[in-house]
Amino acid sequence: MGRDGGAERSGQPQWTRVRSTEQQRLRRPLMDASTESPWLTVREVAQHYRVSTRTITRWVATGEIRSTRIGPGRLVRIHRTELETEQQQYLSAAS
Questions:
Q1: Strands 39-41 and 75-79
Q2: Which end of the chain is least crowded, N or C, by CB within 10 Å?
Q3: 69: helix, coil or strand?
């Protein structure tokens, strides 16, 4: 018998199923305004627009999305209102 109570197969390793970070990310809500900060990471904005983080970084560099740098490092945060502003501009251009 193995540690988990099941029969142990001789000569075969015991494998444990581990969720990938992608699977874990998909299980939590994307953006819940009531519990999260108004400042979003590049990754969160990329998930919102369904583009790569590199695309968001490019948009920040060209000024398509306003952002704030935090500290002396490379930390970039985008305010949630920027997403709402972009959405309003898109909707007004479509009509």
A1: antiparallel
A2: C
A3: strand
Assign 30 a pLDDT band (cuts: 50, 70, 90): low
* Predicted confidence band of residue 84 (pLDDT cuts 50, 70, 90): confident
Q: Structural domains in the chain?
A: 35-94 (3.90.105)
* pTM for the whole structure: 0.56
Cβ 66 vs Cβ 82: under 8 Å:
yes
* Spatial strand order in the sheet of 68-70: 39-41, 75-79, 68-70
Q: Which residue has the higher pLDDT, 3 or 42?
A: 42
76: left (phi over 0), alpha (psi -120 to 50) or beta: beta
